[in-house]
Amino acid sequence: MDEISQSTTIELQSPIVCPIELSLVVPTFNEVDNILPLIEKVECLLDGTINWELIFVDDNSPDGTSETVRAIAQRNRHIRVVQRVGRRGLSSAVVEGILASSASVIGVMDADMQHDENILPLLWKAVAQDGFDLAVASRYADGGGMGEWNQRRQSISRGATWLATFVLKVPVSDPMSGFFVISRQAFMASLPKLSTIGFKILVDILASAPRRPSIKEVPYEFRARKFGSSKLDSAVEWEYIVLLTDKLLGRFFPIRFILFSFVGSIGVIVHLSALGVSLNLFGMRFIVAQSIAVLTAMTFNFLVNNFLTYRDRRLRGVKLLYGLFSFYVVCLIGAAANVGVGAYIYNAQWTWWLAGIAGAAVGAVWNYAVSAAFTWKK
Ligand code: GDD
Ligand code: MN
User: Fold this and answer.
1) Using a 6 Å CB cutoff, which residues line ligand 1?
2) Domain ranges in the chain?
3) Exposed, middle or buried: residue 210 (CB in 10 Å: 0-12, 13-18, 19+)?
4) Could you say which of 27, 112, 157, 329 has the lowest number of CB atoms within 10 Å?
5) Class for domain 8-249, per CATH?
């Protein structure tokens, strides 16, 4: 056996003195002032009781969060950073952090001290020693609370919690919680079906679980943020709707095709409105009015798809113009296919509405497939 493989074998056989028992994964975006306070709290809490590692997954924050964590990690073997460049998102950050971690029990929490780290040992014990698949820190369990969250945030959270009941197979009082501990086994079982869209990684994990996970809930009081500001905005709220849609329909159609078709159906209303105004208000000839309506609807569809359906690949500036032009070309060919197929089926003595639907379906699939490949190419 050559020199290198022999030493490797010996290393692997040597007993690991103290295995890591908890991998804490913390997603960060512009949290530089919270890093040290969080590390100090976790260190005081866990040192001497649970062997831990703390992995920050930072989306290349402009405030220097990654650099700050890296500087601490050079002196502290518990700390690591995964710096992601060119992609954003709380859920996808948590997934990548978990895949970069090593313990069989994984904790997820926020960086901003809003999650009460003091209940971490209880959450860890439930999974590591009591055999639960998941332990969830809940603001809605008896003894829990929303802290100083204003009425608007509380209503959004309660509304989102109610919507989650449509996709979850298991009753959880706080599925919106970003603070939980999970066994690696339970996480790996959900992994193949995760959508990793938006903020709600726990809803994603629960809705992707192949079987009903056992869950322990631990109440906690959601605290006020110490530094920085919340990243939850209307885009995150939209992504939550997309996540739920993906969980409900994603196994039948790609979620983007569902969104693209939804936008297209609103585009039909835009088309008819533009046609009606051109004909009845401006007295135009039909062919001119219909052309204006087609152009208006295509422009509407392009802009809304760029803002919603392809927000992770949103086109800006000059690329937006190129994208609009390419979308026109794609859709004009799609329109020709639509008319051609519809006419062929109508002439084959099928009913007019069936011919219309068939043409529209061909046009929609063509527009979606080709615009995904050319207009919003990855
Ligand atoms: N890597 C990465 N990328 N991290 C992010 C991103 C992102 O795009 N957006 C937010 N984060 C990090 C923040 O830096 C913070 O550590 C954590 O995710 C939560 O973000 P906040 O902006 O503080 O969210 P919140 O306080 O409004 O809501 C949080 O708590 C609720 C109750 O647990 C979130 O965790 C919600 O999902 C949760 O419902
Ligand atoms: Mn927060």
Assistant:
1) 27-29, 31, 57-59, 88-90, 93, 110-112, 114, 176-179, 199-200, 230-232
2) 8-249, 255-374
3) exposed
4) 329
5) alpha beta
